Each structure stands twice: as structure tokens, then as C-alpha cells.
Amino acid sequence: MELHVSDVGEGPAVLLLHGWPDTHELWAPQVAALNAAGYRTIAPDLRGFGLSPKPEGVEHYDVGSLFGDLLGVLDRCGVERAHVVGHDWGGALAAVLASLAPERVSSATFVSVGHPAAFATAGWEQREKSWYMLLFQFPEVAERWLSQNDFANFREWSRHPDPEPVIARLRDPAALTASLNVYRANLPPDSFLNPPPELPPIQAPAMGIWCTGDIALTEAAMTGTEDHVAGSWRYERLEDADHWPQLSAPDRLGALLLDFLNALR
After folding, report:
1. Which of 246, 250, 220, 245 minimizes the C-alpha distance to 235?
2. How far is CA 189 from the centre of its chain?
3. Exposed, middle or buried: residue 240 (CB in 10 Å: 0-12, 13-18, 19+)?
4. What is the CATH number of domain 5-262?
5. In whole angstroms, what is the distance from residue 265 CA to residue 249 CA?
6. Structural domain spans, the chain
7. What pairs with residue 242 in β-bridges?
8. Which tens digits make up the pLDDT trace of 46-99?
9. Which of 42-55 are b and which e, b meaning 16 or more Cβ less than 10 Å from the residue's Cβ?
10. Cα 242–161–224 angle (5° rounding)?
């Protein structure tokens, strides 16, 4: 599937992957910093989000399809290898890409969400925080809960630092359902009982970034990523930042990315 892609700058390529319920625009502060430092940024809208296609049917949103989309983005952009930076669902996809296509990944950075197996084994505190993932499994019910009373539940629960552009996109019922299909395709209820997904160890240098104000992810879900990295591992804990450090701590996140990437040049 051909995704909408923002491709800016020259230099080593950095593939920036957003999560739910965002688009490539979430990375705007980091794109500016990376471009100014001599990096090329490639930031797609994932399947089901933003200006990218939104096929009907849950079956179109499985991780295998999303993984194929990302390989297609790299191929279309003429990029053999890229530094991959993923947030939320983009973090899980960064792990899949680094594990299954190591020849395409120069490094992997996980923001808020790390390796899927680390998430799966993070314990009961993480399961409690993940209650909404079960709610999202119910077609129409989840859509109604999120959108009723002018998206009041979304605003109060998510605490998104810039909710209005997100809500403007999700007012389109097809866009709202498409975004939820990522959860429905990849995190059905029995996934919380089954063994974590098996992926080859990540060979590339990797960094995990977790924020103390994250309402959805525990620290263990990020630090456990180290167990699935065969290359070097770096962990950073951002105080006084929320699930979206791109917006709540843009300068600190940008500085961490540049420090990590510049050390690999």
C-alpha cells in the first residue's frame, strides 16, 4: 500500500513512525531539529491514519501488512538503511522492522512503547493501564465512547497535549474506525493470555525513552526491551513529560535523538 510520506532534508535517513491516534505531523519539532543537524527525515502516515489509505476491514491492519508498508516506503524513497524512531504503535513497528529486516535498520529508537514482548510480559500494572485496548475491540461501542459529547472521553482519558487536530480527523467515522482497527487486528483479547510474539533479537544499536507522566505504559514495558536487543542498549527516562514527549518535551527529545544518532555517524 502506498502511504502518504513527508520526505525532507539530506543526509543519513531517519524513518519516523507515529502511533495512535496521530499522523506524521506529530514529529514536526524533531523533523526540524534533525534536518538542521544534517539528517533526512522520512515520516509516513501509517495505514489507516492521516492522508494514507484507510481500507475497510480489520484484516487489512495486521502487523505483517504494516511491516510491508514500511519496506515499501524505504524502497520508494530509495533508502537501503535507515535509523528507525517509533512512538506508540510506531515503537512496536520499529521493533518488528529491526527484528525482521535487520539489513534495513541502522539503529532503533523506541519512544513510550518498546518491544512487543516487553509489553506482553510487563505484569499486572501494565495490564491495568491497557484497559482501553479491550474497549477498543468492540465495534461501534468504542467509536461511540470516544466520540460522544464532542470527544469528551477522549479528551479526559488520553490527555493528549494537542487534541483538537486529532479530534478534527477522527470526526470522520471512517477515520476513527480505521485507527481502531490497528488494535482490533493485533491485540485481540486472547493476546493478553497467549505467549508474547517471538521475534529475532534486534541486532542494531537501540535506545528506549520512557516518560514519567505516561498514562498508558509502565516503565517495565520499556526497560524490558533490553532483553530483546543483541546490540548496544541505552535507556533514558524523561521526567515531567507525558506519553507524547514530541509535544510535552520537544527539545529534550530532540537532543536525545541527536546525541544517540550523532554517536553512530
Report:
1. 220
2. 21
3. exposed
4. 3.40.50.1820
5. 25
6. 5-262
7. 213
8. 999 999 999 999 999 999 999 999 999 999 999 999 999 999 999 999 999 999
9. bbbbbbbbbebebe
10. 25
